[in-house]
């Protein structure tokens, strides 16, 4: 099924983006804590 394949691709891209943002957020918060 083409739809399930597209849905799988979209969810994996979303997961990668979520993990990237989470990592970025942690880096920013560490920088803020270090600056205080």
TrEMBL record:
Keyword tags: Membrane, Transmembrane, Transmembrane helix
Residue stretches spanning the membrane: 12-33
Origin: domain of life: Eukaryota
Name recorded for this polypeptide: Uncharacterized protein
Biological classification of the source: Eukaryota, Metazoa, Ecdysozoa, Arthropoda, Crustacea
């Amino acid at each position: 099924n083409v739809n399930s394949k597209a849905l799988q691709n979209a969810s994996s891209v979303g997961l990668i983006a979520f993990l990237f943002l989470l990592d970025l957020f942690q880096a920013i918060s560490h920088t803020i804590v270090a600056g205080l």
